[in-house]
Each structure stands twice: as C-alpha cells, then as structure tokens.
Design brief:
The protein is mostly helical and about 190 residues long. It has two domains: about 10-100, RNA polymerase sigma factor, region 2, helix turn helix motif (Rna Polymerase Sigma Factor, Chain: A); about 110-190, Orthogonal Bundle (Arc Repressor Mutant, subunit A). The protein has seven helices and two strands. It has a two-stranded antiparallel sheet with strand order 1-2. The mean pLDDT is about 80.
Length: about 190
Amino acid sequence: MFSIKKTAIGKKIVKPTVYEEVSRQKRFETLVKAYSSDLYRFAYWLCSNHSIADDLVQETFLRAWKALDKLEDEKKAKSWLITILRRENARRFERKRFELVDIEEVVVEDKISLSPEQSLEQQQLHQAILALDVDYREPLILQTIGGFKTSEIAKTLNLNLNTVNTRLFRAREQLRHKLCKELEQVSGIST
C-alpha cells in the first residue's frame, strides 16, 4: 500500500502509492464538483467582488487539497470547506489594509434581468442584510445562501445551537422591521 524509503539519516519516509494518489484525487474532484458553487456564493457574499470570490474559492480548495487527509467524515465536508473559506477571507485582512468604501454607495451588479421594481426590492434587501450586525448577518447568509442547517452553522461559527437560533430569529425580525419601516415611508401607510 505505501512505499517506504530511507533517508541518509535513517528516518523512514512513507509515501502513498500511485493508486492511493488517484483515490485521493478522485475524492478531491468530487468535493470540488459538489461544493464549488456553494463556496463561490458564500465567498461573494463575504467580499462582493467576483475576482476576490474566485481567489478565495481557489485558495480554499488549495488548502483543502493539502489537508484532505484530515477530513474524516465526508458528511462534514461542506462545513469544513466553509470554515477554510472563512479563515482564508480573514487572512486577506491580516496582511493588507484596504481602502474603506461607503456601503451605501456600493451597488451589486445582477446579471439576471429584473424589472425595475424587483431590482429595487433586491437592492433594498441586500442593503438591509448588509446593515445587520455581523453576528446576525453571518448565520443568516449561511442558512439562506449556503443552505446550512442550524446545527451546521453552530459548528462552523463555533456557537451554541440556541445562540444560532436566537441570532437567526433576531436577524429576520430586524430585516422585517427595517423593510416594513421603509414600506411605510414610501407608501405613507402604517402596518
């Protein structure tokens, strides 16, 4: 199964055989095919930039390839990859100082043609989500965009399950309140 070589010092180096490398590569390819679109969506929500999102996903898969042997349970692969992506995103800010941009001026370009009303509603929803505190925004995005279960979100964010449920509830309530308030201002009707 493994080929063993001795070095000049006498230590043994265990190298996987060609067969095991092929199996490892197939496992990795399966992960890439299954989760690349989910990772890209989450990365885009984190950075709102297509090229940075692509880079984050690529770096995530590079780190995943290096640590693939540490993934013991294939069912936890999505959480594992999201955790790598979150850490990779955090590394972007460790080394570099970015110019601050006023969030109200940022417009996310949508490739799907929407009616003006739909486009306005989508932009308002996106701005309302971005206005949420990060403690509420991140679990909400993981659930709605990433499709994670609350237990998976709790593991990914290292939080208690009750905390995640509370934050999701509060995030939705804050969104509902903010959007209803905007609707009242536009229509002049109180709800």
